[in-house]
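Q: Here's a chain of 143 amino acids. Please give me its 3D structure as tokens.
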Amino acid sequence: MTQPGSNGEAGTVRAAGTVLWRPSSYADGIEIALVHRPRYDDWSLPKGKLKRGEEFAQAAVRETREETGMDCALGAPLPSSYYLVEGRPKEVRYWAAEADSGSFEPSHEVDRMIWLPPAAARHRLTHDRDRPLVDALLRALGR
């Protein structure tokens, strides 16, 4: 049974996101987008909660657009993250996503976005649980 105010089974918060990438503009490789959330003062991957009736993949594309300003094409599914937030379980499903068109506009939710090579992105990420997603993206892209 779903608890009031939740969007998942037994109170699980359901969310989706991407490891957004683009070909590097200065080297033979890729760059990964990270977003800074002032509320948490952290560097993270674009992600957010599902809206009622929304599928995980739809939420991943929507949240990526909202947080980065970029349209994207979803690629391979990446490992999901499971952790507690304020005592509630949270599930975040991720996809590799190639950036298409768009441009970043700061908001109250995300005030900065940076593109970094994979090693620098892995280092800049605030949460240890996000780092394996960079490696999973590289494997999915055959790099």
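Q: Can you summarize the key feature?
A: The first strand starts at residue 13 and ends at 23.
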